[in-house]
């Protein structure tokens, strides 16, 4: 029970700090994620031994492997992947996969709301269509977006989605334990 409480606290603090960092600087730096990777590894090692350490290490590595293509296409930033890896260190492999799923659903909802507010659905779908058409016709994969382009109205810090996905995961886990 203590391990679970510590993990939830570590996870919530990490999510808050990462969100604030992404809002302020549009980056999630190593100084934010590295302490939580270390804390997650130590927490899992102390409470679950080498099996916990192994789960934590897999929780760090698997998000990198699964999300690398999205990073290469510039659909996710490196900080987003580091945040998922830090959450993987804290919660372990199985749970970080759940957090990733909840985060992508949250991201879809956030994007939908942004499209509704900005009333630019046609522009966004045209951008996606032209991107996919270019990739299929040229067989050359290019970045979907440039993070530094301020005029791109289709972007938002993905830390919002990860924050929401992480909180949804923690809420569901707490309710399931009651």
Task: Round the Cα radius of gyration to an integer and report it.
Answer: 17 Å
Shape: globular
Helix fraction by DSSP (H/I, runs of at least 4): over 70%
Q: Report how far the terminal alpha carbons are from each other.
A: 12 Å
N-to-C SSE series?
A: HHHHHH
In terms of per-residue confidence, which ranges show pLDDT below 50 for 5 or more consecutive residues?
Answer: none
Mean pLDDT: 91
**H/I helix tally:** 6
Beta-strand share of residues: under 5%
Number of domains: 1
Task: Give the tally of β-strands.
Answer: 0
Keywords: Hydrolase, Membrane, Protease, Transmembrane, Transmembrane helix
GO molecular function: aspartic-type endopeptidase activity
GO cellular component, one term: plasma membrane
InterPro entries: Prepilin_IV_endopep_pep, Prepilin_peptidase/N-MTase
């Amino acid at each position: 029970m203590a391990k679970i409480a510590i993990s939830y606290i570590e996870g919530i603090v990490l999510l808050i700090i990462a969100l604030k960092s992404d809002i302020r600087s549009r980056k999630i730096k190593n100084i934010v994620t590295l302490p939580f990777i270390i804390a997650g590894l130590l927490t899992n090692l102390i409470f679950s031994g080498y099996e916990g350490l192994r789960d934590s290490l897999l929780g760090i590595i698997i998000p990198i492997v699964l999300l690398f293509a999205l990073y290469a296409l510039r659909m996710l930033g490196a900080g987003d992947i580091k945040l998922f890896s830090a959450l993987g260190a804290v919660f372990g492999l199985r749970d970080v996969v759940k957090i990733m799923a909840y985060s992508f659903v949250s991201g879809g909802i956030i994007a939908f709301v942004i499209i509704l507010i900005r009333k630019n659905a046609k522009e966004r779908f045209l951008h996606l269509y032209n991107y996919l058409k270019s990739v299929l016709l040229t067989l050359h994969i290019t970045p979907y977006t440039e993070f530094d382009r301020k005029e791109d109205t289709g972007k938002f810090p993905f830390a919002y989605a990860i924050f929401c996905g992480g909180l949804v995961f923690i809420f569901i886990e707490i309710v399931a334990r009651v």
